[in-house]
Amino acid sequence: MSTGLAVRDFSVALKTPAGVIRPVDEVSIEVRPAQRVALVGESGCGKSMTLRGILRFIPPSALDGVSGEASYDGVNLAALDDRQLRDYRGRRIAMVFQDALARLNPTMTVGEQVEEVLATRGRREREVQVTALFRSVGLDSSRAFRRRYPHELSGGMRQRVLIAIALAGDPELLVADEPTTALDVTVQAQILDTITDVVRARGMALLVVTHDLGVVSETCEYVYVMYAGQIVESGPVDAVFDAPGHPYTQGLLACVLDVDEPVEQRVRTIPGVVPPPGSITTGCRFRSRCPDAHDRCATDPPVVRLGGDRTARCWLRADTDGEAQ
Amino acid sequence: MLRFTARRLLHAVPLLFGVVTLMFFLLQLAPGDPIQALIGDYPATPEYIAQVTEAYGLDQPLLVRYWEYLQQIFTLNLGESLAGRVPVADLIADRLGNTLILTVTAMTFAAIVGVAVGVWAGVSRSRLLDHLVTGVAVGSLSIPMFWLGQMLVLVFAIKLSVLPSQGMYSTRSTAEGLDRLPDLLAHLLLPALVLAMREIGVVARIVRTSVHDVLTLPYVETARAKGFSRATIIRRHVVRNSLLPAVTVIGYSFGFVLAGSVLVETVFGWPGMGQLLYESIRNRDNAVTIGVVLLIAVAVVLVNLLTDLVYGLVDPRIRVGAGAGGRA
Lengths: 325, 328
Fold this sequence. Notes:
The complex is a heterodimer.
Chain A: E1 5-16, E2 19-31, E3 36-40, H1 47-54, E4 63-72, E5 75-76, H2 82-88, E6 93-96, H3 100-103, H4 110-115, H5 123-136, H6 143-146, H7 155-168, E7 173-177, H8 185-202, E8 205-210, H9 213-219, E9 222-227, E10 230-236, H10 237-242, H11 247-255, H12 263-266, E11 303-305, E12 311-313, H13 315-320, E13 323-324
Chain B: H1 2-29, H2 34-39, H3 46-55, H4 62-74, H5 88-123, H6 127-142, H7 145-159, H8 181-215, H9 218-225, H10 230-268, H11 273-282, H12 286-314
Helix pairs in contact in B: 1-12, 5-6, 5-8, 5-10, 5-12, 6-8, 7-8, 7-10, 8-10, 9-10, 10-11, 10-12, 11-12
């Protein structure tokens, strides 16, 4: 019985010219089989680095080290050698990236790039599988189309090819890093539908990393909100969006455009930017931008259990709602 | 594709015209006198010199001779050699094949070895090996060809006596047809190696840098996410994409190799166009000199055209004549 992805107190330390930084700081995430989970936050909050750290896509030259645990089905991914790790990549955990043009080999046809992932040997059988994969992600499955090169396709088609590549290894968990960021709004919605459809149809688990709350609400059941390298809130998507427990989540949700509001009030922002890793060492990392900040925020806030499988890392919740960990 | 080729060839016409003009006037400026070179160091009467000068049309004003030469070239007639009055085209035809054997062998060897060494250094995670290969590559393109050629002759032909140093075939050989191949290869080895040396360095350096760059590209990470081994990733996704800059360099190298063949053919007594060019310059045989240079210019133009066509084969994004493709 698969138990899925379990990440506990996971930190990533990187070597930079300015010294060692920790863009990912004791992050805990869980993705159970067939569960659809989002990791959301602003640019620079460490969400992509969390993914890259878990799946070991950080170049050794840049990596100072990881700590904590990132395991899949109880196997610690960090402890695997290269050969063992390859058995997980593609076959059990597959990835969909943003910027599909750069993510595809420019000198190989899209058909070949999907086909090379297949484990099947026979030529005919491979062709049948590739055709089925192209169809399942909403692409033209004709031979002529499969013989095209990435530059001959639109951005949306390329993203679909990336999804087909990810599906070709028949994985249990699909990890998507900003899968719709570079696309037109209308295409974004179609791609999200495709991802949700294939994930549901195949009973796969999904971990989406995004800055877009729309993506979260359309695709996922559970959400982790990340800020400055830490998880600041987690919970079922509906519950979190209805009543966000952390001021940062409240801010993010307030930034979502609401077409029912008068035009001048539609666009809201959280003042300031995410502090760079290492610039805040103690206290709540959001306090400089938080409308509700007070004296206590200078000391580390507790992770408060709010009930209903929810947590928030905030002093405000420690007083009113739950029990601190 | 056809239109592209035709346009490129048309563009070459003014270039070739320029080459002819430049060569014609430069050779007039060169010191020495063709008639004196033809007659040799014998004392000759002024009447005899005037007679020979007139016979070759060299008494005409320069511009008249230029005009006549142009008309002649335009009908694809390269004129006659001063010495022996042999058509230049025949002289070149005799030598062209030999030069092609030498230069094509050298380029093929340089391309294969250069790419192999470049990929090896590029994917190597050992810094020492990387630096070593780069160092040797820089060294190989810094060594003068005539020096390297003479050193190799000294070592392999004179000291060790394992390889011939002169010509294409042994004079005492009685073999015919294909049986002459081993003899030819033995003669080919040293001059081709000397010619290839510089290009191996050039190609290896470019490929190494290119491999380094490609390894950091996002699609290589996609291949890693597919669960492929490093060897598979390099073979399927890195090598071909790293070859793009090498194709350009190899194409443009051909001009250098042709130029280098002048030196190498002279050092190794290889009966090719380079040797012909060298001799014609020494003998002030201007028609031959211009003819050979013109042919080299044509060859470079053709190879550059071929380079662009090959580039399209390797990289579908710049495939000549291909439309922008379906955007929907």
